[in-house]
Amino acid sequence: xxxxxxxxxxQPSLGLAGMGLLAAGPGALAQDAAPAxxxxxxxxxxxxxxxxxxxxxxxxxxxxxxxxREAPQSxxxxxxxLIEERGATxxxxxxxxxxxxxxxxxxxxxxxxxxxxRGFSARNxxxxxxxxxxxQYTRDPFFLDSVExxxxxxxxxxxxxxxxxxxxxxxxxxxxxxxxxxxLTGMSPFGLRSTADIGMYSxxxxxxxxxxxxxxxxxxxxxxxxERWGVAPSVTWGLGTNTQVSLHFLHQSEDNIPDFGVPILRxxxxxxxxxxxxxxAGVDRERTETNVMTLTAQHRFADGISLRNTFRYGNYDRxxxxxxxxxxxxxxxxxxxxxxxxxRQPQVRRGTDTILQNQTELRxxxxxxxxxxxxxxxIEVGRxxxxxxxxxxxxxxxxxxFNPNFYQAFDQTxxxxxxxxxxxxxFGAFVADQIRVGEYFEVLLGxxxxxxxxxYTSLAGATGARSNFNRTDDMFSWRGALVFKPISTVRTxxxxxxxxxxxxxxxxxxxxxxxxxxxxxxxxxxxxxWDITPDLAIRGAIFRIEKTNARTPDPANGTLxxxxxxxxxxxxxxxxxxxxxxxxxxxxxxxxxDSQITxxxxxxxxGKELLNTPRHTATxxxxxxxxxxxxxxxxxxxxxxxxxxxxxxxxxxxxMRYDAAISWAITEQLxxxxxxLNLTDKRFYEGVYAGNITxxxxxxxxxxxxxxx
Length: 709
Known about the structure:
InterPro entries: Beta-barrel_TonB (IPR000531), Beta-barrel_TonB_sf (IPR036942), Plug_dom (IPR012910), Plug_dom_sf (IPR037066), TonB-dep_rcpt-like (IPR039426), TonB_sidphr_rcpt (IPR010105). By secondary structure, the chain is mainly beta. The protein is built from 5 helices and 37 strands.
């Protein structure tokens, strides 16, 4: 039995007492009676079949006129139920359910969520409800309804970037019902987490509050700690009417001891104990403050015709003081490793990013003769700013390779290295039309125009020289697809599309990039889906992504870049999601990627695999509902070896991680769950960079108690 079974609704007056009732225990709720005039909901048949928890085919694709089921594109949806079942407390953990993805290290001035998708960086390709969210912080899923991973170039939907795909986060919004959920969690090693999800409505007004607080020590990583809290209130006026206005706010704060891992030694992770940490007490720290406000107004003129306007303001502060461990000197096979010293390289920076964006979107359904059109079109304007100050730290004491002293005395002195400011203005106009041609065929056509204008200023040192760069790019992106449905349960398609990466994509410019046109990408994909049963579907695709003019050093002048490189990513993937039997649910996937740098100004890179791109990735999660509300589940995630540099001389080993879970719905209002992450305590590595690599967490147990009304 699912712990999320619907319960009889309470009146709005009782909804205000929801938090207190949750704290008092579900027994208090048993005394509530439906008032006169309330519509009684039918009793839940606990013996009936549960819905397939892992299928989300009817989810609309953001900025496209299709659902996930109808989309001629590889899309993986990670629903809230799956996130909770797997005990995921970060977006990165939730994305273990998606193949073709690998984590990357937070280097080069970047921190927070950073990953590679189908061979290309997706650090700037995060979105919340279709609006860009490329800030540097650790995203927590406490306010999310689902995570949608759209694979393949998607500039026609999102503008700049999205070479390998895009990750869209769908938020939880008010509903026309009263409900509450409180979850208390304990973790081993030490960790505590609490979340709340409370919704109330009256008439056509609904409110919802999501809240979270987490404090966790990372298993087998000495001194590493994650601590954050957040709230996400929202209100909707006009629930169930033709005109709705919604206001959503997200605040999240972090106070972590960041982990930059262990040094690379002769192209491999240094052979040190799992918990070895090279940071310094009272020095290493990461703080972030995230504030995102979204106002949405939408109106339905008639069936199939609606207009939506979204306004977003976001402010993201970050303060990082971390240690990146790097080997000192040349190491040979004859070197006695006990004598090796490690440079505690300072990574110190503070910055603030902002985004101000407005998007207007019209959706319409129309017929022209025998053709049926589903159209989405719109415009967006935005302004993004980024201020980043990098600091130079006085020499931190070197550490021994095997026994770094976390409590070594160090009196830190900081001085400004560079202070940069960037302002970027965006204008985009897009249209996409899904055309149904008779019973068997569909055609999808889409196009988008973007103008991206960035001004960048850099000041070297406290009184150093000032540099000013400007770059304006006008780009057109397109997508086309042909769909053939031989029978009602099978869809096949061929699609092609483009994307672009401007030099100022990450809100930074330099003398060697300011005069370069955007990198251009194109993709081709052949795919199919088959609804084996109404509850179980499989999808598969063969794809190619080509970057036709990659930035690369000029062979005649190494201080300049030219658009003379080429990169490609070929592969295929297959996935399944749904319910095999009444009580057996499963989601699984496998992706193979053959990536290559086919042309580069650096000879050592030619013929090598793309940075941080494993050939094989696989994921599996399955659960079975036993009698008396007991559910058991388990799964795995596999990442093949991958490289930390384009010359392929730094290797992160392959790994397989196993997870398991068991839960018990004691009553309809009360449930418990036990998760075991990295069940076999496998030593593995996640974020990889040319000079250091970050170990993943060791075996972690998570016990949760959840009360609902």
